[in-house]
Fold:
Amino acid sequence: MGGRLESPDIVIEDVSVGYGERVVLHGVDTTLPGGRISVILGGSGCGKSTLLRNIIGLVPIRTGRIVLGGRDMARMSPDERLDIRRHMGVLFQDGALLGSMRLGENIALPLREHTELSDSLIEEVVGMKLRLVGLADFIDYFPGELSGGMRKRAGLARAMALDPAVLLCDEPTSGLDPITAADMDQLILELKATFDMTIVVVSHDLASLRTIADHVVVLNQGVMPFEGPLAGLDASNDPFIVQFLKRQPSRESRILGDSRASRPDRRPTGAPQTGPSGQAREA
Amino acid sequence: MGKGQNGLDTLVWLVTGLLGCAAATLSPARRAKPYQRARTISHLAWIGADSLPIVSVIAACVGVILALQAAIQLEKVGALSYVANLVGFSIVTELGPLLTCLILSGRAGAAFTAEIATMGISEEIDALEVMGISPVRFLVWPKFTAMCVMAPLLTLWADGVGIVSGGVFSAMALGLSGQVYFNQTAYFLTMRDVVGGLVKSAGFGLAITLVSCWQGFLAREGAADVGRRTTRAVVQSIFVMILLDLFFTALNYIFR
Structure:
């Protein structure tokens, strides 16, 4: 294969995936456009991370095919798969940094494995990647010494080590506070603008979706009720999509009644209420 | 070929990977990169140097125990000088390799399983695969190499400590001259005995690494499974070592 892939499309044709007797995805058909950010959206357990792992090649598909840069992922030889993976960067949900290695060593690992760069050059590249994600001062830290958000950013730096043509992110903002999540979204946008790569993000974060998505794929119970631009998602009448975008609970509360129509007062008992003048008074 | 979905597939994947690594050591173009050599050296130090104290203590105790047990019986027939033969032969051919590798199983083997299992659950092994780095080459081969080197070396050390402690005890408590003891040992033990014991220990080391890493790769379900797999690895390693011991000893008898 050789050479650098240039923002390839990822074509998913009639893909079905299962674990044992259980079928997780049925006949998913979509194209994730090259050079754009595609967000795979769906509820917990709908198969979105499984689809990402299919694209990466960690989980085999039962039927169909996934074509990346014109190559069928399922029919590649081990050498071809290795070559494709050099063009791929993956950010796992918790970063998946190697805990026994310092941050700098983690970032350097793909460089040491796949390039003939000298130690000093590798050190420079590592410094560059860490500056990209704002972690230049943490090069000697172990992953266990970092916060969750920092581990995700470090994972992103490692994913970017070989300047991949495809970046795949599994729930990059999950578990992050809103500001850190917004920082992560901005980082992803900056990467797209700077490196012109194909980016696929698995998420159920609506705020992130609206910030970064060019193309959206929705999964629900193994099927794909929607794929297309973000504007089309908002206009969809699919009940699941409407419920998902409006954050409506799936069942009526036995305690609160039908909470889908109204929000209960969430102030703690005894907390002072403000009167018309803005001054506090007893509840 | 990736890690399998079941135990047998994973074992086949592991063995195939190790054979591939072994073949790569013979090919200049596929030799280990500097960072991989550094990992092997780190394992050599951890398995070897860090195990020395406990192996020494156990071996010293075993030497004394054997001398005592032998003396009880040999005194009755006036053959106390044969304590040296019994201590030397038992340690070199059997107890040295077995006890050393039992320690390694509990110490190193359990750590191998826990490390790999934890990495599997936190997607670190997936990350290696995605980076195009073979988990077998990165994680298992350094351990395998280090164990196959260190198990015989530690066994040799344990043999020496056990024989010396038996001799010191015999001189102090049994009235057996040190010179007689060590002359008897040197006369009775053959190179075949020593080499046989070292080959056994290398085989045990191989079994410990294979079983421990295999159990590590099978972990799926979180922290509780890490514990289960670690326990299983130690128990299975011991079982396999005993079977191998039976095999080697029978071979030695057949070709005596």
